[in-house]
Amino acid sequence: MSTDKNNKVVVVGAGLMGTGIAHGFVSAGFHTVLVDTSAQSLSNARTAIENILKAGVSLGKVSAQQADASMARLSTAGDLGEAAIGANWLVETVSEQLAIKKSIVAQAAPLMAPDAIIATNTSALSVTEIAATIDSADRVIGMHFFNPVHKMKLVELVRGLATSDETVARTRDLCDALGKTSIIVNESPGLTTSRMSAMLGNEAMYMLQEGIASAEDIDTALRMGFNHPMGPLELGDLTGWDTRLSVLRYLHQTLGEKFRPCPLIIKMVAAGRLGRKTGHGVYRYEDNKAVPGSGLRASAL
């Protein structure tokens, strides 16, 4: 059950989650290769990781020397085939599309170390289906991180049908090394957190669509009434409504009518109002910060 920090870790996907996961690994002492076909995404990810580390230095959480050492452990690549050679761990965090995830696993598995573990950061898709792409399905596990990764301590470890006890134990040790708290979930659509969050966000959007309250007041109700760090509409903007819609459609297909996506979500995605990443979702954003008073109201629908 080795979590030797000389092991090679590959993180596939340089989006928001991949960036955070790569930061977590290099900060914990692991040599990490971040892979993406977009050179711009890799450049943005490197800058973002540097900024997180700089913020840590300014807050006294890490030393400048530790921050420099973390960046030295990070490398980037545009070719998964080259990056995966001899790797001991792989975490894929690409878009929530089963075919893409299966393709990554199928390409990487034959090139990695014989006892390598492959983790998928999916929030709703089937680990069993992803694992079935390769012969050694026992070495595939779900490893669901939360955004922002450098602040959120939870990781859901998801057992597929073939995931071995050894794979679970080794991955739990890895979470410990990353300073994360892990929980074990038997594969089920939406796991625990995504299933609850999808329903909460969907219901909040129905309430907004029906004019029950403004976006700001719906979010304030959850923050102040239930001590949630973010309201469900704020969280949807952060996650991206396209991602939320994909998850809801999958849950609707597998778990039934209670997860039917709110028409307002479908309308917003069609309009390109995906959230923070496009500068406009339920709220408008400038420099990634919400503009006061910009939340949707019934009259704006």
From TrEMBL:
Residues 192-285 form the 3-hydroxyacyl-CoA dehydrogenase C-terminal domain. The keyword Metal-binding does not apply. Residues 8-187 form the 3-hydroxyacyl-CoA dehydrogenase NAD binding domain. The record marks 144 as: Important for catalytic activity. SUPFAM superfamilies: 6-phosphogluconate dehydrogenase C-terminal domain-like (SSF48179), NAD(P)-binding Rossmann-fold domains (SSF51735). NAD(+) binds at residues 13-18, 36, 96, 101, 123, 147, 277. GO terms for biological process: fatty acid metabolic process. One of its GO terms (molecular function) is NAD+ binding. It holds the Pfam family 3HCDH_N. Keywords: NAD, Oxidoreductase. It comes from the Bacteria. The keyword NAD applies. This is 3-hydroxyacyl-CoA dehydrogenase. The gene is ditN.
